[in-house]
Specification:
Blueprint (H helix, E strand, L loop, with lengths): L4 E6 L6 E11 L7 E7 L4 E5 L3 E6 L3 E6 L8 E5 H7 E2 L7 E15 L5 E12 L2 E6 L5 E3 L11 E3 L6 E6 L12 H4 L14 E2 L10 E4 L7 E3 L5 H9 L9 E7 L1
Parallel strand pairs: 9-18, 16-17
Antiparallel strand pairs: 1-2, 2-5, 2-8, 3-4, 3-7, 5-6, 6-7, 9-10, 10-11, 12-13, 14-18, 15-16
Length: 258
């Protein structure tokens, strides 16, 4: 169990302080989405946190208040109902950094049943992670409209291309992707009904594309590290999300493309 941290905070007496017990906890999703929705205080706005984000619980009652210690909402105060806090703010341990390796095999024309029999020229690779291996695609040879607002090419049609060979840092996810981008991989004929966490995409840190490449599930890659073998996404997600490779919680680990 994580020990309480003794800190000081203001009380109702001007000029004095009193000890407050703060407990370190980690976020856990209440379902298989991989996301925890919290209420930011005092604005009341909603925010989403992925799993294994470090928080500091400072006040417990009908609503449990805590400070988010990492990510885009770092240092902000948030709250959950007492019931949800008991389930979704947990004592846990994170790994010190995931390491995954993609070994390129070459181009293959593959038919995707969940994508209504679409046939694409896939750059196939074998991904090794946590003692497991799976088939992925690094590029599907398609044209797409750039949607990343940070890219100078936003709004223009681009030709997909894979990440160059090398080692890259994998960032911690910060926002859910739109469900309709991947939900059909669970519901469509030829899909994987037990697919979970499909809106959690892990950005790959790569300056030339402004971090537009992701590790995610699917049969279509616009230059992403895409888990083509749908049944292997759940274990890959579980491995990546439970790791952080730096003290700030910015990265979950690395991928090497060879």
């Amino acid at each position: 169990m994580s020990p309480p941290i003794a800190v000081t905070d203001s009380n109702t007496i001007s000029g004095s302080v009193q000890p407050v017990t703060v407990k370190t906890r980690y976020t856990k999703a209440p379902d298989t989405s991989g996301w925890l929705r919290v209420r930011l205080e005092p604005s009341g706005e909603s925010a989403f946190l992925c799993e294994f984000v470090k928080v500091a619980v400072s006040k417990e009652g009908e609503r449990t208040q805590f400070v988010i210690m990492e990510g885009q909402h770092k240092r902000k105060t948030a709250s959950l109902s007492k019931e949800n806090a008991a389930k979704c703010l947990v004592d846990a341990k994170r790994g010190g950094g995931a390491s995954i390796v993609a070994k390129i095999k070459g181009r293959e024309w593959l038919v995707s049943q969940p994508r209504r029999g679409e046939r694409l020229n896939q750059l196939v690779a074998t991904l090794s992670f946590d003692g497991k291996s799976a088939t992925i695609t690094l590029d599907s040879g398609v044209r797409y409209t750039e949607s990343n607002p940070m890219s100078p090419n936003v709004g223009t049609v681009q030709q997909s291309k894979p990440l160059p060979r090398g080692t890259y840092k994998i960032l911690t996810p910060e926002v859910p992707k739109t469900p309709n981008m991947t939900a059909f991989y669970a519901t469509a004929p030829g899909g994987y009904p037990d697919l979970k966490y499909h809106t959690v995409w892990f950005p790959v840190e790569y300056a030339p594309t402004h971090n537009s490449n992701f590790v995610h599930v699917g049969n279509l890659s616009e230059g992403c590290v895409t888990m083509y073998e749908l049944k292997m996404w759940n274990p890959l997600y579980a491995y990546l999300i439970a790791n952080r490779s730096d003290k700030e919680g910015k990265y979950v680990g690395t991928i090497t493309i060879d």
